[in-house]
Specification:
218 residues, alpha/beta, Rossmann fold, seven-stranded mixed sheet, four-stranded antiparallel sheet, 11 strands, 27% helix
Amino acid sequence: MNENIHFIEKRVTTKNLAPGKTVYGERLLQFEGEEYREWDPYRSKFAAAIRKGLKQIPIQPKMHVLYLGAASGTTASHVSDLVGQEGIVYCIEFSPRAMRDLLRVCESRSNMIPILADARFPETYRMFIGPVDVIYQDIAQPAQAIILVDNAKLFLKNRGFAMLAIKARSIDSSKEISKIFSEETDILKENGFTVEENIESLKPFDKDHCMVIGQFTA
């Protein structure tokens, strides 16, 4: 577990990198003289995976993380808490509307670097990003595992980790959910990843989603 995560009153929380400030109206709680932000599992697949029993948290203090699909910054802000002031979160987001909200979050979090770009084309933002320890991906695209692999080949350190939130219905609206999860996981295995953990369902927090943790061998 990451030292910046605590369970307070049975709630998942992260130590607030920007004390006194919230990102999406979350509760602020006190623990041993420090301020923590409640991490809503209904608004974050990462938090949902923790609530569903995720054992391995590859994101640790001081790490560099590439976040694909940062949206308005809800989960990305908690990743910012996890890596702390000495870490970096490169936030890739394609939507200009979401980017406007993300920029507001980044104003109070100097370890978050917002980049308006399409995760399908990692070469277009290659000049902004150095080697990373972890890739976190949560995007609504058909070729989700392939997008992760393409980014890993450019940015992920050897023996680095990836966290992939698979959105089954963004891949195929008619195919059996378990088959989609299996096919995406197989793509990771065929491209240098060893699957370390697989939360096969994020229900009741998210429908038709799973979370896969993999380690990359370049």
